[in-house]
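TL;DR need structure tokens for one chain.
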Amino acid sequence: MKLGIIGFGGRMNSMVNTLLKAEPQLTVVGFVDTAPEAALARVPEKDRGSVGVFQTIGEMVEATRPDALAIGSRCDSHARLAIEASAFGLPLFLEKPVATRMEDALALEEAFRSDPCPVLVSFPLRASLVCQQAKRLLDLKTAGGIEHLLAVNYVPYGKNYFDMWYRDYSVTQGLFIQKATHDFDYLAFLAGAPITRVAAMSSCGRVHQDASRKSEPLNPDVQYFESIGFPETGMNEDSSSALLEFANGAKGVYTQVFFSKRGAKRGAVVSGLHGKVEFDFYTGEIRGTRHREPVNTLVTIEGKDAHFGGDARLAENFLAMVRDGAPSLAPLRTGLQSVYACLAAKASAELGQFLDVRQV
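>> reply
TL;DR here they are.
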């Protein structure tokens, strides 16, 4: 299997290594990257002597005839490059978020309206064994009909969004779009319905502050970083939260915190008339509880694979898509629906209003 890569950064490097575990004969035949020397160092050693370095996707496809393409560039270019790649009709692995601005999301939806190529969006949380097992319990009616979802993400590596390239707000457009796109997707997956309405709040510049403001009197707990921006002009959030309404009438609450450092927690409680299903990605525990019966179900997922095992499942799915035309676990529709919800949450926090979510 021959793979062409557009944007060969750290995330795509991890994904290629995961693909190679499932298919050792996979070959990276070419790449397009704005930093070609750094990208070349990430090419698997067995392919480094033969890989092609190209300026455009078209040149790469014409010269190498890949079986599939993968996009792992910076977030603000995902939509544009996916539209460009769609012209070649090859199976496409697309890193999330699939877009960072409404105009890009709309253009992406329009370009793929005729399904020019199969797409797998990088949503490993929905593909993880933890989430899949929670979904099985919900499908068994452990909770009954789903009425409420509560999800949290206390991020232990939150400073990454302030001391790496993620600090550039012009690229990320904030952490609803950069981070919550994962969580909004798996919540919609568990609810069995897309998010249709949101009300959100965010906090910026209270914990993580631009170093240029050191001379101002501040809370002693403030953490300074270079060039992270300002609340007045746009910057990543210290924390953000959203109320969610789903198309089936279920309601939800989501909170993400980027200064927790220790005590990481990421997971959800899904409640229905008859019970609840709760899980934590970090511990791997899924628990089903019946409200009116002394019956509990406890499942523990072992292992600490990347993204809680979700990357491995994405890799297997993508290989099956290329080889056998298998359906995508996370088609473009899921990526667009998540971004529309994230864009609505971002706008809601800015405006202080409930907002409807555009539907694909």
